[in-house]
TrEMBL record:
SUPFAM superfamilies: Thiolase-like (SSF53901). GO terms for molecular function: 3-oxoacyl-[acyl-carrier-protein] synthase activity. One of its GO terms (biological process) is secondary metabolite biosynthetic process. The lineage of its organism: Bacteria, Bacillati, Actinomycetota, Actinomycetes, Mycobacteriales. It comes from Mycolicibacterium wolinskyi. Residues 121-199 form the Beta-ketoacyl-[acyl-carrier-protein] synthase III N-terminal domain. Pfam families: ACP_syn_III (PF08545), ACP_syn_III_C (PF08541). This is 3-oxoacyl-ACP synthase. InterPro entries: ACP_syn_III_C, ACP_syn_III_N, Thiolase-like. It comes from the Bacteria. Keywords: Acyltransferase, Transferase. Residues 251-341 form the Beta-ketoacyl-[acyl-carrier-protein] synthase III C-terminal domain.
Amino acid sequence: MSLPMTNDNTAVSLVDVSTYLPGDAIGADYYAQFADSDDLRDNLMFRAPRFRHHVAPDETAIDMVERAAAGLIERHGADVVTGADVLITHTQLPDMPFYGGGGGMAHRLGMKPNWVIDLHNGGCAAFVLGLKLARNLLTSGEGHTALIAVAQNAAGQIFEQETIRRKAQASVPGDGAAVGLVTLSDSSPILDVECRTYGEYAGDMTISVDPPRKWWAAGPGEGCIGFTESKITKVLARGNRQVPEVSYAVCDRIGMQPKDVDLLVTNQPNRVFLRNWREALELPAERHVDTFDECGNLFAAGIPVNLDRAISDGRVKAGDTVLMSAFAHAGDFAGAAAVRWGGRV
């Protein structure tokens, strides 16, 4: 459904997005050979995708972002990237614990931005949070162009540890990266963004190590996400509620029903969430991008990778309204954004 052009003289647009998936696709049989007894193996949360991609052992988040940016450079020229005023980044597993990857990414891309901001609280909804932050900075006069760079790199590192890859949770994540190009223009306007923090749930995602220790402390045992049946039930309930809530909030403000959007793009933790979100928003499967069986759970890279896939496959055309929505971690953050897609140059 097409909407009238905005009268806002400082409209901000998501002009393009380019992505990167590392290495060859890894099939589900890879994990089947390591499968061990696991109380959660039959849980709906951990039904494995057919394929996923893993970062190489020596591949950094900066490498991934550089490779993801190649599509933008090819289509828009190197100057668009090197001359960007703002760089907003999110890395699922920072290469160094004491500082974010934004500075290194800016250097690798040849940028000298006025703003370099590393996000972590956005989690799987970090791309939406990045859109809101980029729009606010650009409309306040802090520049003309922003890049939003996200890297999911935990699958081939955390979940590929020798004792962790035996667990049901290990077969679900996949790795990937994306870079979005945001500019002051009305070519592909960001119509609205809703971000909500649910701080009361922030402590519900934990690292599990046996025997217990601080994540940074030396000792035996490899760390993974501390899932239990009780935690999974809570996360399912929160995700099923939060994504529709932020989606409806955005749609209400832009004057349309979710069922009328042309394309829904979400994060993709598992098939259950994907189905439940479609049903809650009354959308058919063909209007909801889903690469779960090809890429697995891409965390923050899920939305931009799926959007890029939809654009490349011709599933979204100029004038279409695209709704992006996601929740993060154990439900401590959720966000949604609507864009009137202007077409890829």
